[in-house]
Amino acid sequence: MRKIPYELRDVFTDRALAGNALAVFVEADELDGAIMQALARETNLSESAFIIRAESASADARIRIFTPTMELPFAGHPTLGAAFVLAARRRQDAINLETGRGLVSLRLRHRAGRASFRMDEPAVATDRTLRHRVRRGWRAGRTRR
Predict the structure, then answer these.
(1) What average pLDDT does the segment 5-22 reach?
(2) How far is the C-alpha of 7 from the C-alpha of 29, rounded, in Å?
(3) What whole-number distance in Å separates Cα of residue 29 and Cα of residue 25?
(4) Domain ranges of the chain
(5) 47 is catalytic
(6) Which of 47, 55, 71, 98 is catalytic?
(7) How many angstroms separate the CA atoms of 106 and 83, rounded?
């Protein structure tokens, strides 16, 4: 079996082993959706992000986001975590990512020895089901009660 490189990151924290854990697969171009889903199921984290080549010239990369059971068009913590990994590898302070909901622009800020991102969320997708879920208060990663 070939090696599939990834980084395990903690998002929304300033220390290890806290925050939201995220697996970021950094060289995922050759992986199909079924393999991505299997890897997300194997990591068993709330989400895993897969960085692949961008389709748009205005994006640095494209990300696909998977939970252990399904693919998501967009979620905040995997988008931020993937952007942080990509920014560090490319030594960039601004990253544009394609997501299933559109282009997301992120800018890295350094203050008092800490790094943070400002993220402009994409516009709501035109998919009827997604619009319906957003109107009902659905958010990625939460289950309805």
Answers:
(1) 89
(2) 16
(3) 10
(4) 6-135
(5) yes
(6) 47
(7) 7
